Input
Amino acid sequence: MSFLKKDFIFQNVNKLKGVGPQLSKYLKKKRIEKIKDILLNLPYSETDRSKISTIKDLKIGKIQTIKVQVKKLNFPRIRNLPNKIICEDETGKIDIVYFNSRESYLRKIFPLKQWVIISGKTNLFRNNFQITNPDYVTNLDKIDHVVKNIPKYSLTKGINEKKYRFISEQVTNNLPAIDDWLSNEFLKTNSLITWNEAIKNLHHSDDSKKNQSKSFRRLVFDEICANFLTLSENRQRIKRQKQKKFFSKNLSSNIINKLAFRLTNSQKEVLDEINADLLSDKRMFRIIQGDVGSGKTIVSLLSISNVIESNYQCALMAPTEILANQHYELAKKIFQDKKININFLTGKIEKKERSKILENLLNGKIDIIIGTHALFQKKIKFKNLGLVVIDEQHKFGVKQRLDLANKGGKNCDLLLMSATPIPRTMMMSLYGDMDVSKITEKPSIRKNIITLSKPEKKINELWTYLKKQINQKNQVFWVCPLINESNFLDYSSAKKKFDIINRIFPNKVGLIHGSMEKTEKEKILDKFLNRQIHILVSTTVIEVGIDFPNANLIIIENSNKFGLSQLHQLRGRVGRGNKQGTCILLFKDGLSKNAIERIKILKTSNDGFYIAEQDLKMRGYGDIAGFQQSGSKSYRFADPFVHQDLFKLAENYILKISDAMDQKKYNFLLKLFDKAEIINESEI
Ligand code: ADP
Ligand code: MG
Output
């Protein structure tokens, strides 16, 4: 079969010879639905069948190839006995054994007295060499088809190597010539190779195993570009025309004047950037990045006040009830006596009240709605939503973020906030060319959290210290890596630690962990916020965003188990009021050099961006808190850490082309990575 048209590769695999409904089903499990998916299903290794061995030299358990003469065919008439073909070469005898195979078929491929090539795994049975169900049997004419390195693909039940090879070779041996969408000049300057060449090498050499081989890098570059193109396409749709907002900033100035603190310069700059977006005729698509405690919330509320002044509604969404509620309380305080109608909506709100809220959102009586993702259910409609703010945005998926942009209609601006410092190289792959505002400065009254370390065997020295803290009405977090005791892991568990601490400080301790009911968790957090308990023993479940003004001590057990950024975010739970915060890192003896280095970084720096960078250097992208959830899974081949240079290259490339995108050329690329549909789907 020859593929004259490149569009052929976007057809269903059942267009290939030998692929029926059953096999299609199996292939689908391996993410192979279209013919192009066969190209993207790279071999993970190769089997060396290139050397012909003599029977005498066969090694048990290895895949080998032999050239033998068919001596005798044995088809027992008793059920369950296998068919057996006895073969020979100059050096010895071997049995080829088949279970469940048709006699006529075997007679055809094993003609008596003829020489054949057989390839498969050798075993020993009653002191005889034997190959059971060989992978390949062929006559000497077709020797070249088998006696070579054969790519090995990971397969699923229902497809064996031979069958898959029969299918895949129809594609890989007949590749259509694709007009490369990258220019020769670009390829040359950036040491990339053509798509045609890359795909060929990936299936016919061991290039696919090396993530820095030229062929693999080309595929990675294509994948990144496909992703970026989609994101920037989406963004262009988001960033289209809207009505400008009009406001005098009277309201926001009034609020600023009444604040108990002065905005930092960094907060002011970010606010200016947002205001410029609001006043422009392009929809805003901006993310505020700022370390824990840098004061993102007030910036968002001031932006909200400007949008309200422009006679639009605003929505502020947080990932949990407690955080949403804190924002609600703060908003009520800030907007008091301003004749602004603020409401709170979560999944828990009663039906009657809920319908009232829905009604008032639709008729425009509500100016600000604050809540959890309950806010964005289909039923909820706004009269004229002008701004959506999403706090701790990494808790929400890419799809949800796009849904939100939809929700607001064409005049709605979008503002995201995140405490997870994402390095610049990563921003693009997560958000496309979204605008970023960074709050780089922390409120000057905020004291740096004092970070200490202590070996766990000295844990008893802590009790007097804790007692003192509690007497001073301070509150304490105690963090353990596990919920329950483990027989396998030598880590501290929250439940056991709760028992121990509860004995020392009866009625003053609470326990919270991830396998508790959500309502149960919120009850405990409320108790802690209302100072009914003084020590909260927990796993890492507590949201970083929540303000615990009286908590000023956090103790983290087995601290070497946590990543740098995670530790930084954990300690950010304390010292958010005006008291000095302290973090004590407990560790077991015999720390690795790496762990010692990490503790040192935390002791010397309070800068989340710097810490994230160090984390990156030491452990790679995968471990940055929140990163996993926020989109690294959108890559099948590219690794943001290993292929950093290609991410940068792709970013520059996309920025240059996105204005005048040549649909035809890039459609191929988008379709190759199943991106075309995403764009159609998200009608923004
Ligand atoms: P985050 O950026 O982590 O969301 P928040 O917005 O919750 O931080 O702010 C943390 C605390 O800092 C809040 O209690 C807030 O009132 C306070 N805050 C915000 N901006 C300033 C400032 N410029 N000066 C002093 N305190 C501030
Ligand atoms: Mg926050």
Summary: The domain at 450-605 is CATH 3.40.50.300 (Rossmann fold). The pocket of magnesium ion (ligand 2) is lined by residues 296-297, 391, 545 (CB under 6 Å).
